[in-house]
Amino acid sequence: MKRTMLTLPLLSALSLTTLTACGGGDDTGSAAETTARPKTTASQASPSADPAARLAELLVTKAEAGDYDVREPAAGDALAESQEELRVDKKACAPLAYATNYLPVGDPEASLTHVADKGTTVYTYITLATYAEGEAEAAMKGLAEAVTSCASGYTAKSSKAATTYSSVTKETSPSKSGADESIAAASTVAYKGTQTMRNQTFRFGDTIVNYFSINSGGFIHGRSSQAEVPAELVEAQNAKLG
Q1: Is 140 in a helix, a strand, or coil?
Q2: 38-57 pLDDT, tens digit each
Q3: For residues 209 and 99, what is the distance between their CA atoms, to the nearest angstrom?
Q4: pTM for the complete prediction?
């Protein structure tokens, strides 16, 4: 465990579930089948020769996020650094495993992740990804199918650790806020109670933004916890995309 949860908590928290995650599962699931400061919105931006640079322009800044500190994730704290490194026991659940490990879904041209918090143990990972024409819609379809198919849970593994998600629940999709479509889900992990994490995912044309929120305090202190995706953070980021 890190000396302070002001650094990225995801692997530190979820690796606590390794002992309960290593059983079961046929391990035949793979990494993905396909496996990212001007006031420019995703829908207005013209195609760029550098998709990563385009995403950097669209990512919400600390100045725009109100009380939230927004920064790059700490190196090495992710369960997996790429889709290829993350395996699932149920192939259909791969898109959801990516979304809950701040990896892009589908087959993006580029992706970029930052983490936001207010100095508490609740962290929200913002992953922006840009896609070739039609690929963003396909990625959202895969994620929607995963949310439905993986209600009974699944296990995600990497060389670092393994996490068993006990359940997945489709939630009411948030207001699209100018997006073309949106998806919302809650995932649970059984550890000293129930740890509930949430995703909200929006598509703006060929750009997808995924918000993943986790309350690492529940893992640290051994009690059930809930994480909600902060509406004000979604509003600030989505305003740059729509």
Answers
A1: helix
A2: 344 565 444 557 999 999 99
A3: 10
A4: 0.84
